[in-house]
Amino acid sequence: MVLYFTGTGNSRYIARKIAKATGDGLIDLNERIKNGDTGFIDNQRLVFVVPTYAWRIPRIVDRWIRDTAFKASAKAWFIMDCGGSIGSAAKYNKRLCRRKGFVYMGTCGITMPENYVAMFSVPDDAEAKAIIAAAEPHISSAIDTIASDQMLPEKRNTLNDAIESDIVNPIFYAFYVKADDFCANEWCIGCGLCARLCPLNNIAVKDGKPTWGRECTHCMACICHCPTEAIEYGTNSQGKPRYHID
After folding, report:
1. 224: nearest Cα among 128, 111, 99
2. Cβ(76)–Cβ(105) below 8 Å
3. Which pLDDT tens digit goes with each residue over 130-166?
């Protein structure tokens, strides 16, 4: 079973390729998390395809895995798409596997187009296509490893990796992952797509405009899928391209 969480489509893109090649089914974790569905998953092979949030898997995915019942001794692979690095995320994935009784089968990072418009520059269409093309051999390599029931090769971690995953990650969540700076300008057409896409049900449309609550995971689904680019994240997102892949 291939389980994916995505804000702007990178993880879904990879997950679909893995599922097509291996014949495994797909589970949309956005939908499961949005609906509070932690029902039993009876599969021996689990491939988690997720974005990298501050050099670890997203906390809401970690929480969902912890709360969900799985088949005993299932094998678990972790594919993490990222804008550059996954830090020492593997250490935390191993720890999660021990907690759940999974057989840990490795973690790999695959560079995909940056979507974190709240902080970083986002590629235009041509740049995004080039990045995806460069990722294809790495996706194929991961597929071959999973299909042959082998462990993913893991990189040697550096001190910087440890600092990013161990120290920066909790600071990032404590001080930066908030919805306070999201707003919709006069271009908003009140379509409600942002509310439908939010995996934490944190957006409500009131008087034809979205409002954000206190729960947010900074997945960027709302801002990057807005059909009129009416959503901004303070001044950080102004003038930047929006990225998503269907």
Report:
1. 128
2. yes
3. 999 999 999 999 999 999 999 999 888 899 999 999 9
